[in-house]
Amino acid sequence: MNLDGLTMYVSHTANQGVVGADTFLRFIQKESRVAARYSGGSIKNGCLVGEIEGEVLTFRYAQVEASGEIHGGSSVCEIVTLDDGRTRIIEHFTWRTRTGFGDNIFDEAEAG
Predict the structure, then answer these.
(1) From residue 57, how far is each of 12, 54, 60, 93 by CA, in Å?
(2) What is the pTM assigned to this prediction?
(3) Which residues have a Cβ under 8 Å from the Cβ of 102 and sit 6 or more positions away?
(4) What is the mean pLDDT of residues 78-86?
């Protein structure tokens, strides 16, 4: 599984989540190391860094929110390939700076 160069959007947000449909993530990958920058909606700027092993992505994230607050946490994600060939990431996150956890879904944006 290679996420390098993918742009993804948030197609589902958990009740405890802050990212939304206007949040876009841009991934880079070198071997098993993965990083992404994300922004949009209620996120001014965010980054994640982690590792991929097979179809499992594990990372820590930090973000500056529109309110000016800085928050972060950790995630374990499942990576699946949709019927149309696009990549989907199912994120299981846990906040480290606030109370809560949940599941978000990131879908690969269609080229164009």
Answers:
(1) 18, 8, 10, 12
(2) 0.94
(3) 14, 15, 16, 17, 92, 93
(4) 96
